Amino acid sequence: MAKPIATTRSATTIPTGKLAVWWVLASEIVIFGGLLASYVMHRLGHQEFGDYAAHTNTAIGATNTFVLLTSSYFAVRAHFEAEHGRGKAAAKWLYATVGGAVAFLCIKSAEWTHEIKEGFVITKNAFWAFYYIAAGLHACHVIAGAIIMLIVAHDARQNKELQRVELIGIYWHFVDVIWIFLYPLLYLVERHR
Amino acid sequence: VNPTHGNARGDFGADIAALASSWLGLVLLMLASLGSAYLDLGVGNVLAGLVIATVKTGLVAWVFMQLRRASAMSRIAAAAGLATLLLLIALSLVDYKTRAQAPAAWQPAQQIAPALGVDSRR
Predict the structure, then answer these.
(1) Which residues 59-118 of B are in CB contact (within 8 Å) with A?
(2) Mean pLDDT, consecutive 10-residue segments, chain A of 193 residues?
(3) What share of chain B is helix, strand, coil (3-state, %, to 5)?
């Protein structure tokens, strides 16, 4: 079977697939950047925005941050093993990363269930609308990353397409970076009162 | 043969100890961010959170995403994303800071009455 063009052709001295991932991330920044910019505007204009933000659960936010940071470490370990040609070891680290993604989503589900039961629904006010849209969009990226990682791990286990381990790793680190910014904005506001 | 094709030097550029140290650094920065939120720093609370997030992002990009050994093209793509983000926020702030009128009053979310049936009552 013919190999994908993205990993066999290069017009810029680096594989097209790798360059494509970087450009996808650059465009993703515009999506999340727009959300973050709108957050800043609301926060500057309305004190109430900060007041509502104080209701989120800091412990859950910190736990999920720890989970994602650790899963990012697992992803880079997978890349490390793939770089040394050890497909099975790379697959194991990828599965561990997927485990982190599942843990993140389970914690997030429990958190949302609690918030909704407390009456903090998406239509409550602008902050909660932002909270659900930003965290929901991020969660969609987590789900997509986990699915792609399972596919990559399946091939890596047989020492196939090891270059993809790095590509999905770069994407996963970006998902981590988005959360790194969402964490202080959503979970650490007005805690000193 | 380098399986990932993207490394001109043929080595990973970091050993396991360096990767683990970076992870530990990220966790410590997360705890610093958490701790700073409980200090009354005024606007400094938001700034501290964002500055620490930026440092964490630098660590992730430099070590985990391997930007430190990436080709110029990859770095250009990353820089383009960052520049777009800064442009987006800067232009939004220019608009916000130069508006003469005060911000609109806070409005709680509410259900708007449906327009259907208005004509039938006439």
Answers:
(1) 60-61, 63-66, 71, 73-74, 77-78, 80-82, 84-85, 88-89, 92-93, 96, 103, 106, 108-109
(2) 63 78 87 86 78 89 97 96 94 98 97 94 90 95 97 95 93 96 90 76
(3) 60, 0, 40
